[in-house]
Amino acid sequence: MLKKLKEKNGSISVYVIIILVFLMPFAIWVGIELPKTHEINQRVKDAVDSASASAVTAIDSSSINGDSTVIPLDREGAKGIAVQIFASKMGLKVQGDASNIEVVPKEGSIIEDAVLEVDVLDEESGVTGDPSRPFYVQTQNGKRKIENSTVIVTATVTYQKIGFMGRDITVTHVGMSQAKMNPVR
Questions:
Q1: How far is residue 58's CA from residue 69's CA, in Å, rounded to a whole number?
Q2: Which of 1, 41, 68, 114 yields a CA-CA distance of 20 to 30 A from 15?
Q3: H/E run at residue 167
Q4: Which of 45-49, 95-99, 150-154 shows the lowest mean pLDDT across its residues?
Q5: 169 and 37 in contact (C-beta within 8 Å)?
Q6: How high is the mean pLDDT of the chain?
Q7: 157/124 Cα distance (integer angstroms)
Q8: Which helix (DSSP H) or strand (DSSP E) does residue 158 occupy?
Q9: What CA–CA distances, in Å, run from 118 to 38, 65, 100, 151, 179?
Q10: For residue 77, with 0-12 CB atoms within 10 Å meaning exposed, 13-18 middle and 19 or more buried, which class applies?
């Protein structure tokens, strides 16, 4: 009986079971889940940054005068550009009219829901262009000082059942771009 207890045949299978039970899920998470989550996060960030940078180019040339210290933006034009750029980068559909544009997932997309907010801040909003009298706005990333015409794009995108674990992932990013011109000397 004692001789049977001292035999070590089969002890390797115990180690293999421990490795499979504890280390394989971790390896799968590091190898599949983590890169997929990073890719999704980066994709939304790039789309938001592109949307805000493109939208700030919608300058209202009819409102430009020599006295203004802030470049006037075409509010509706900027919102339309931001929505179009974000939708094309994320593979979403744009629906609605000029006053109420929204993005919706295409049929068969892994995106479950997308909410996009575009804020255009200029002289109408209280932006003065004077560094001694800054305008502050609260974003999801904290309080930001606005000195020039600005477009802020906030996107919240929910992906359905990504990766091995099979859970929804919601990503929120804020992109901000300012229109600024240096004086000619």
A1: 17
A2: 1
A3: strand 167-179
A4: 95-99
A5: yes
A6: 83
A7: 30
A8: strand 149-162
A9: 24, 26, 11, 7, 15
A10: middle
In the block, which residue shows the tokens 């099979």? 166
Euclidean distance between CA atoms 43 and 111, whole angstroms: 12
What distance in Å separates the CA atoms of residue 126 and residue 133, rounded to the nearest whole number? Answer: 10
User: How many CA atoms does the CB half-sphere of 130 hold within 13 Å?
Assistant: 7
With a pLDDT cut of 90, the percent of the chain lying above it is 29
107 token code pair: 């049929």
- Which residue bears the tokens 């799968």? 28
Output the CA angle 119-122-123, nearest 5 degrees. 145
Q: What is the DSSP letter of 123?
A: G
pLDDT value at residue 156: 94
With the C-alpha atoms ordered 82, 83, 84, 86, is the resulting torsion angle positive or negative?
positive
Q: Is the pTM for the entire model greater than 0.85?
A: no
Tens of pLDDT, residue by residue over 13-25, are 888 888 888 888 8
Place of tokens 């015409």: 149
| 41-86 pLDDT tens trace | 999 999 999 999 999 999 887 777 666 677 888 889 999 999 999 9
